[in-house]
Fold this protein.
Amino acid sequence: MFDPRNQLNPGKIATPAADIPLLKIDQVPTRGQTDRKIPVQVWENYQEAVHCNGNGLCYNWNPNDAMCPSWKATRERTHSPKGRASLMREWLKQLSDRGINPLDESQKVKHASFVLGLPGRISNTLKKRRGEYDFSHQVNESMQACLACKSCVGQCPIKVDVPEFRAKFLELYYGRYLRPVKDYFVGSLETLLPWLAKAPWLYNTLMKPQWVQKLMARYVGMVDSPLLTGISLHQAAKKLSIPYASLETIAKLSADEKSRAVILVQDAFTSYFETQVVIDILTALKKLNFVPLLAPFKPNGKALHVHGFLNAFAKAADVNATYLNGLASAKIPMIGVDPAMTLTYRFEYKKILGDTAPQVLLIQEWLAKQSVHLQQFSSKIKADEFTLLAHCTEKTNALSSIKEWQQIFSALGNKLSVVETGCCGMSGTFGHEAANLETSKTIFALSWQKIVQNPANANRLTATGYSCRSQVKRFEKRELPHPLQILLRQLSE
Ligand code: SF4
Ligand code: SF4
């Protein structure tokens, strides 16, 4: 029997039983007929979902390709970019069938009082627990399994952007239902960290015990939460004579110093959970005869965007952009440490701020342009061979930036190979969410684990992403250096 489950163009080519009629080609409803029910204005505002043409390129099976880790880990079509785009179109259609405009709803959610909306959210959540049907729950289930890694954005030929429409969906979904506690924990982390870092011993003492980790997993929904390093970046920068970036400190630089100056824009994860990486990057830049300045920490807001706190994200982006744009008037390049956090400035920020989004480069995008300057140090180091494990968001959305690391290493006489990898399975805080732990482990085992465990790679690997390094640390108990930490080691030998 050809097509016994009636899966291939159901009813169009063959039917599994004689009593199921074969439809004429023009009797089968087309996608356009249902999509047309979505109002034009809504269509335009959700174009990152509705333009999926269904070509299926995102059903990628190569474990060493970044495209859609959630699809690879589950093999469930609803956990692929195409599946998520289809669910969104159906959701938008169902909303329009009920006369609900998601754009108006988004405005209402943004301006609603948290407290006054609580009774409605509690009531809806109780109905959900009683099993009352809402198609949104199916959409939510699919969105929760998305890592927001942005590989679809870079690799889909139509640029279907799941993290963008996922954030819009979550904003509306949690306007009607109660949010899990973990969302508030993750969303507020960037704001809380500078305060927690004032007494790192207190935070670490509270978080370290096994029984606290168990309570966190059960009641907050977070596992293996990282501990604060307890290292003061402020003190370390002072010791290195690296000033905070401000128009006043920049004005004190000589013309020569200004020509070698670069501003390092902090992100919460590396500054508080991997402080030594930031210090080593600053030290390496000094040893390479640049003049680094440190931008005071301001929340970037990426975690808020990922979880659909779009109003709070817009506010954080506005404050941060105003500050960074003020510094930009000094015409000194700005670079960010973590690729995913840095690329937020050119994607998520750009979507809401347009041309006023601050220009923050990936380290390698700036450093590769200094190749001639770097070459003078090549005779001072013992060249070697290394292997780069790049971050998914970076290699799929800033393609040339991987080659730029190779140019930098080559300018210093080193050889840097790039190993093809899939996702590491961490992606921000995805892997730290208790509900995602098994998926995160599965994704890590698909690609990264074998590469990290390969004895031929011992002491050669370097990783650009904070998430990737922390995933290797928790599953393999190994610390992979950032590429600039390797160069610092060479410059210090
Ligand atoms: S690759 Fe993009 S356009 Fe093609 S099916 Fe997947 S999401 Fe849709
Ligand atoms: S963001 Fe990543 S996990 Fe989510 S749909 Fe896109 S590729 Fe898949």
User: Anything to note?
Assistant: DSSP finds 30 helices and seven strands in the chain. Residues 233-492 form one domain. Strands lie at 261-265, 291-294, 334-336, 361-362, 385-389, 415-418, 461-463.
